[in-house]
Write a structure and sequence with these properties.
The chain is an alpha/beta fold. The chain folds into 2 domains: about 140 residues, Rossmann fold (3-Layer(aba) Sandwich), CATH 3.40.50.1000; about 50 residues. Helices cover about 40% and strands about 15% of the residues. It contains 8 helices and 6 strands. The protein has a 6-stranded parallel β-sheet with strand order 3-2-1-4-5-6, with helices on both faces. Strand 4, helix 7 and strand 5 form a beta-alpha-beta unit. The radius of gyration is 16 Å and the shape is globular. The two termini are about 15 Å apart.
Length: about 200
């Protein structure tokens, strides 16, 4: 039976921060840069809970995620990994975006992933602490052996479960002054991901 790699979508496979910032700047006349991005959207937008909820709904309803740029470097690496591992996409995206997400994944990564799993983190009533929740339940439920994610909190949560974890890229939002746990390895790009797994 193949070991399972749980792979995040946004800013690992899809240029989410870039797309989010572009939409926000055009729609609300903001001056954000991709490096300003973080999962705490209310903080990025500098708005209260009510306005955060309104904007989040508008962004999801716009279908903008269907236009996000994909990571060209990911596909050949994923094709190689698929020969030895079961690949599951694991995302914090809201279920309202499931159909667009599945279509986008089919367009750019056809035949690569066994399934896409949604955490449901942002699907209940919105509050300003949702960005603190992790994918721990998904990792446990689907018995993943490895995790690739750009969010430090998900990588730390996986490491606590004893899962070998790749913290993807050197984004402004995944920096830390503390040493990473033994189970967490930072990888700069998809080539580094490939080198990591070839060494296993």
């Amino acid at each position: 039976m193949k070991q399972i790699i749980g792979i995040d979508i946004d800013d690992v496979l899809a240029a989410n921060a870039e797309g989010f910032v572009k939409f926000s700047n055009e729609r609300w006349d903001m001056h954000l840069r991709p490096e300003d991005y973080k999962e705490h959207w209310a903080e990025v937008w500098k708005v209260d809970l009510k306005e955060f909820e309104r904007r989040a709904i508008e962004l999801h309803d716009s279908g903008v995620i269907a236009t996000y740029r994909h990571n060209d470097a990911a596909l050949p690496v994923l094709q190689e990994l698929k020969q030895s591992y079961t690949l599951l996409a694991m995302t914090s995206r809201q279920l309202v975006s499931e159909q667009l997400t599945r279509h986008w994944m089919e367009k750019h990564y056809k035949g690569i992933f066994d399934d896409i799993k949604f955490t449901g983190i942002f699907d209940g009533p919105l509050d300003l602490s949702l960005h603190l929740r992790t994918k721990s339940d998904l990792f446990t439920e689907h018995k993943v052996t490895y995790v690739i994610d750009d969010q430090l909190k998900h990588c730390l949560a996986a490491a606590e479960l004893g899962i070998d974890t790749l913290l993807f890229s050197n984004y402004t939002w995944n920096q830390t002054d503390e040493a990473l746990p033994e189970k967490v390895v930072r990888v700069s790009d998809w080539q580094a991901v490939l080198e990591y797994f070839r060494a296993q």
